[in-house]
Every structure is written in structure tokens, then in C-alpha cells.
Amino acid sequence: MKKSLLKVVSVILCISMLFSVCCVFISAQTPTDDINEKYSYLTNKNINPDEISNAVVIPGVFQSKVRLYNDDGSVATDKNGKELEMPFFLEDTGSIVSLALKKCLLPLLLTLFTQHDWGGKLAKSVAGVIGEVLGGKILSDKNGEFVYDQRADFYDGSIAELREQGRTDDIKFIFDQIPLDDYASIVGEDHLYYFSYASFGNIDKIVDQLYEFILKAAENSPTGKAIVIPISQGGTLANNLLERYPQVGEVVERMIYIVPALDGTVLLGEIFEKGIIDDDEALYRDVFPILLDESTGSLINIFLRILPNSVVNAILDEAVDELVGKYLKYSTCMWALLPQANYQGAADKYLNGPDDAFIRSQTDAFHEGQVKAKDNIKYEMETYGVEVFDICDYNAALYPICDSWNSMNADGIIQLNSTSMGATSVAVDVQLPEDYVPVDGGKYVDSYNLVDAGTGLLPDTTFYFHNQNHESTGSNDVIMKLAICLLTDKDFTSVNSYPDKFPQFNEGRNTKSFRNRLRDAEAIDRSKLSAENAAELSAAIEQAETALAQTVVDREVSGAADARLSKILNRINGISDEPTIGDEISGKVENGLTAMLKVISAALFSLLGGKGFSDVFRIF
């Protein structure tokens, strides 16, 4: 429950969930020859590491290890001696609960009794606690410098250099964030560089460091050039890089964008400009079941009714104003994640005083560059011959925390127009209008008639994955294979290079657990199994390997292979496929409870709409 509550708070405030490509998984290390063969079959190319440029990964939000330091240089810990963890460096649960009770209990009780928030004390108290807990340690001053000593672990060299230094934990962290260990196995760990930064920091200073980092990677590269891979929030850093250092193209061979926030995200933009979702019906019906699960979400929907609607909305608005207006207003990395359409309104709202002038000058400059982002990319292509590719996810609705959450096609975190550099779409599962005239006679329209890639900046080098969520991008093995082939094959120049292996439009999938099961299965000593189990395990492994070798995704094929593998593993491990009586009872109770909560929530919504009990049944 603790985890769920923290997730609710984080999502509502649109910070902790945004732009993180959740690609954490441990992939099996395979000998170089086997890995090379694994990828060479895709493009029929033998891979020569001496001809491959070094790769520089610019990761997404919170994909860098960041620590908080005390004045004496030691790493900050809570009262139990546990290191405070990014992104918010939260104190222990007991301290947070104690703070909440101290500041919110009395105004909460008074509001519950009178059904009125006198002087807005409850809203201000709750907002103050949320701001202090989530924003207290990440605060920046008016010069864009961290008030508290917050630093990212920096990797001044390749993965190979980190291994020479004995930094195996750092290497594990990197590959947990960005699963490119297959790439490192193919060409060597000396070819892979990982740029680390603090996601709440000053984007100009970070990009200055990034530019030097790319120069070093290129200097050490066999080709004298680097391939840059901006991921998610890394796309905003790339925007600033190309605006302030256009000459970087001299040492860049390719740029491979992966779900980049090139025009920010509407989620953060609308929250900065307008606040949390104003649709009361959506708040009382859709938000929490989607963000959490139907049972927990329905329970929250029910409990929301004990407060008047005006109080609920006031708490949300106050929380946003507190967090943005006090704690995030001088974080230029966060401002860089606002879309062009939301920037002016948000900046006029929060950066309008004399103390804000320096930060406002920086954010204005960044967003001028953001407006020119497409032109800057074209400049690199035309001037230096940089080849640019883009990999996008689509048809996953934005999280329901802003007004536009269900009115555009997206990957759950970033709207498609931003990640695709301008593709045309309407909303999730909404086809292009009948009177819409597609580019090039529909050459770039997907089979679902949801997206016209032809209006994007790079229609011939942008790949799309249908029904793929932003957060599970790294768990899509096909996306990782596509990225690795783009990194290693210079003949891979467009969506038409290998359409039978990597078509422009493909299906999304998440094979993290499937691949882990396959790894476990392959490690089993079949000589110790019965003949029947050994034969079935071998057949299941072969079916799984065949399914995972497919790069044109067929979910039914991979689903069937995964189910067969799971079944034989359960049999070998003595786990029954049939639920026990206890499991059946537990499942029925859980399903019954969920159904009951859904019915109550739906009934209350039908009766009250977006209102609290006292809004309809006047108590006082």
C-alpha cells in the first residue's frame, strides 16, 4: 500500500513517472560470436567492430544514478542509515507520516466535520507537505544551482574503462537502465558510453558537459565519429545541444532517437500552465483506476466523496502551485520538457518576477531552440551528413492527469507529435478523418489508419510500434534489436532497407519476463529430468527461441510460446497449473471485493457525478 500511495502522489504531481523508459531487466551474457550471429542474420551483415563508431547514450529522466551529499561530503542517509534515493531523496516512511499528521490532521478533521476548508488551511497544509517531501531536497536557487548538494555519478569513459576501474555496480546500473549489453558484446564495451546527469538540473550546464563527452567518445572511436542515442528526456538535451553546438555534427555519424520528448510532453506542459485535470467526472471515475488498479482506484474514488469537490480540487491545485512555484521553478531541465504550446503561459505564470530573470532568459532561449528543433536537425543532416533515425511508440493514452489526456495519440507519457517529429494522428484508436488527404497517397499510413508518418520530419527513417507503452520500451526486444542494427549496419539507411525484418510500422510487446524464463529454462540440466519433461522443455525452448527471433511482432505467436514455456517450467518446479482451494478462495474474494468496489464507485458516480456527498446532500 505504501508503494501505491507514493505512486499516486508522484503521478498526480507529474514528476516521478514522466519520461522514464522503464527498461530494467537482466539479459543473459552471450559469447561474442553467438551474439554476432544473433544479429547478423537480421541484416546478413558481418559486423566488424573496427568499422563501428562509438555510441553515446543520452538517457531519460531518472536514468542516471544521482546522490545527495551532506556538507562534509558524505552521502546523505535517513535516520536508519539508509542512503536517500533519487529522485526525491525521501526520508523514511515514519518521518513522512509524522510530518503529515503534524501539519494536516487538525485541518483535515475540521474539514471533515464542517465540510468546509476554512481559509484553505487543509489545501495549503497538504500542499506544503507534498512540496516539502517531494521538492525539499531537489530545490534550485534563482541561478539554477542546486540548494543541496545533488550530483550524478559521472562515467568519464567507456563501459570498458569502467570495468577496468572495477565499477561493476555502475555497469550493472547502466545496463539495467538501457539494455544495450548485446551491443557491447558484439562490438566491445569500449564502444559504448553512457552520459549521466541530474534530471532536475540546469540544462545549459548539462549540455556543455554533454558536448565535451561526445567529443571524447568520437576521439576514441575507430571511425573518429560517434553515434548519439537520445532517449526520452535525452531528446530535450539533444534539442539544446544542436541549438547551442551545431558544430557537433562534425563528429557525429548518426543520431538514433528513441521515444524522444522533442516537443516535451503535454502532461507536464498542461500541469505547469493549467494545473491538474479539471474534468471532475474524469477525476471521480477514470483517473485512479487507470493509474493504479481497479480495486484501489475504485476505493479512492469512494473516499474522495467524503470531501466537497471544491476542497479536492483546491488541494490538487495548491499542490501543483507549491511544487512548481516553489521547488521546480528554477529547474531548467523540467522547463525543457514543456511543449511549445504550453511554455509561454506557464512561464508568464511562474517566471514573472525580478528574481526569475536569469532563469527566464535561459528557458526563453531553450524554447526558441525548441521551435527551431526540426530546422536544427535538418541543418546537421545537410551540413555534416548526419543520418537521423527515430523510434516511436503509439496508441497508448496519456496518463489521465491533464485535460488533454484522452484527446491525442501518445505512448502513455509523451504525445506522438512530439516523439515522431510531426506525424499526424487523432487520438488512441481514433482513425484519421474520412476527408483527410494523406501524404504521398497514403504511403506512410499505418494499417490501422491511425497515423500518417508522412507529415513527420523524417518519414523514411522513423519507425513506429503500435500499442507500445513508453515505460516498457526497453522491454521490447524488437526495439532493442532495431536500435542495435542501426548502430552496427551502415547499410541500414531507411525504413525500406529491411522491411521484412524491420517494417516502418510494427507491433509493441513486452518480453522481459518471457526472456527471463527462457534464460532460466536454458540453464536447466535436462539430463536430470524425466524423458518426457526433457523433451517438452527442449520443444518449449525451441518454440520460444523461434518466437523471440521474429522481428515482425505477432503477439499470439509469442504469447503461445511463453505460455508453453511457463507450463513446463511449473511442472519441473513442482508448481501446479491448477489453483489450490486456498488460491481459488483468495481469488474469488479478491475478485468479489474488486467487483463490489467497482459497483459502489459506479453507483456513486451515477448518483453524484463529479461531486462529494455534501455537495449533493447538504449536511451543513
Descriptive tags:
alpha/beta; 11 strands; disordered N terminus; 620 residues; 2 domains
Structure write-up:
The strands form 3 sheets. Strands 4-1-5-6-7-10-11 form a 7-stranded parallel β-sheet, with helices on both faces. Strands 2-3 form a two-stranded antiparallel sheet. The model is unreliable at 1-32 (pLDDT under 50). Strand 10, helix 20 (477-488) and strand 11 (505-507) form a beta-alpha-beta unit. Helices cover 48% and strands 8% of the residues. It has helices at 2-12, 32-43, 93-114, 121-135, 159-164, 168-177, 181-187, 203-219, 234-244, 266-274, 280-285, 287-291, 294-304, 309-328, 332-335, 340-350, 357-371, 373-384, 416-419, 477-488, 512-522, 531-549, 555-572, 581-608, 613-616, and strands at residues 54-58, 66-69, 149-152, 192-194, 226-230, 252-258, 387-394, 424-425, 451-452, 462-466, 505-507. The two termini are 33 Å apart. The protein has 25 helices and 11 strands. The protein has 2 domains: 1-510, no CATH class; 512-572. The chain is α/β, with parallel strands linked by helices and 620 residues long.
